[in-house]
Amino acid sequence: MAKFVRSSKFRHVFGTAAKKDKCYEGFQVSGNSVDSAYCAVNPKFLAIILKAAGGGAFLVLRHDEVGRLDPEHGRVAGHTQDVLDVAWNPFDDNMVASSSEDTTVKIWQIEDEGLGKVDKCEPLLSLEGFSHQRKVHQILWHPVASNVLLSASFDPKIVIWNLDSGEAAIEIDCHPDLIQSVSWNSNGSRIVTSCKDKKIRIIDVRKNEVVCEQAGHEGAKPQRVAFCSELNYIFSVGFSKMSARQYAVWKADTLENLALEEIDQSNSVPFIHYDPDTLMIYLAGKGDSIIRYYELDKEHPHCHWLTNYSSNVPQRGVCYMPKRGCDVTSNEVAKCFKLVAKGYCEPVSFTVPRKSELFQRDLFPDTQGDEPSLLASDWFEGQDAEPKKVSLNPGDGGGAKGANKPKKGLRGLGKMAPKKKEAKADDDEVELVETVKQLKLKVEEQEKRIKALEDKVGV
C-alpha cells in the first residue's frame, strides 16, 4: 500500500546556534522567581533583565555589541525593585516598556547608538498611581494601535493604558486568582488569558466583559495560552492530572476543545511563540535544553511536530525576533535569543534549506511592518483594523536590511500614528521638480548649440 507523506514547506527546518564570537556574555540574569522570559528583542536591540541590588535594572545591547560585556556598560535603572518584564514597541524600535515589583510600568526611549557607558534613569513616561497595587509581571503592546499598552499584575488585574494621556483607560478585574498569561488576537479587539483557577477566558477588552470561559488543562501547574487568529484557534500548554506536559487546541469563539496531545514529563511550562505568517509554534521551557517546533494544520485542528533544537545548556529565558528582523537571504524563518543562567545569550537561527539563492516567496509572505493601523483614540472609540503588512523581499525594499534602517530622530509619545507627509517633504518635492525642469531646459539648449556646430562644420 502506498504511504502518503504530509506536504509541508517547513518539514526540513533546522536550528543553528551562533558561534561564540556572535554571542553575548558577561552579565548576570535576574534570579527573580516570577515566570518571565527575562529578555526581549527587536531588529535594533536586545534587552536583558539583570540581577541588580538596590533596585531593578535591565541591559540594552545593540546587535553588534557581541562578546564579553564591558563592566562599565550602561543600564536602564529607574525601578526601585526588580524588573519583571520588558517589551519593545512594535511601531518604534527605539522604545521599550518595563514592568516591576514596584507596581509601576515605565516607558523608555533608547538612542540609535545604544546606552554606551551611561546609565539611563529617567523614563519617557511612568505609569503608576492606583491602577496596580501589586507587582506587574507581564506587559504587551497592542498589535495594531499606537500608544496602547496592556499590563497584568498580581492584583489580579489587567490594565489597558493610553500612553497619549498617560492614564489607565480600561481596568479588567474578572480573574479570581493569579493571571498566568495573556495574548492579543490579531486586530487587538480581544485577549485570551489563563488563570490559576485553571480556566481560560476570552475577553472583549473595550466592553470589559468575558465572552466565554472554559476549564483548561487539569493539572495544578501553570498554563499558557496564545491567540492563533488566522485559523480561529487558541493554542495552550499545560499539564494533566498526572503532571504530564501537554498542548491543546481550542476554538477561539467558543473555547471548544479540538485537540489535546501529551508532550513529555518535564515540569516546566513552555513559553509559546506563534508565527502567524508560517503558522508555526515554538515551545521552549525554563530549564529545558530543547526548543520544539510545530506546524498548525490549516484543515484540521492539529499540531504537526516538525523537529527539536537541542543544546547542552538549559535555557533561563528565550525571546524571538520579529519576522522583519530575520535574514531572508539565508531563508531564516525564525530567530530566537536564548538566555542561560551563567549570563550567556546565544542567538539561534531556524532556517529552511533551499537550493535556489532567490527570494523564497512561499517561505516569506508579507508580514507585519512597523507602522500602526490605528491611533490610540480610534481604537478606544471602537475601530478595528488588521495589521499593516510589508514585503520581506529585499528587491522590494523589504527584508532584514530594510527593517534595520535607522529612523531619523525619535518619535515620542503621541507621535507614533500612521506617518503623514510633512510640509517640509512637500517643499522638497516642489524644489526637486523645479530643478528637473531647469536641467531639461539646459539640455535642450546644449542640443541646439551642438546641432548648430554640426551644421557649421558640415557633419
UniProtKB/TrEMBL annotation:
Coiled-coil intervals: 429-456
The keyword Iron-sulfur is assigned to this record: no
Keywords, comma-separated and alphabetical: Actin-binding, Coiled coil, Repeat, WD repeat
Location of the region described as Disordered in the Swiss-Prot/TrEMBL record: 386-426
All residue ranges annotated as the DUF1899 domain in the record: 3-67
Record GO biological process: actin filament organization
Pfam families assigned: DUF1899, WD40, WD40_4
Domain of life: Eukaryota
Record carries keyword Coiled coil: yes
Family in the record: Belongs to the WD repeat coronin family.
Stated name of the protein: Coronin
Organism: Pocillopora damicornis
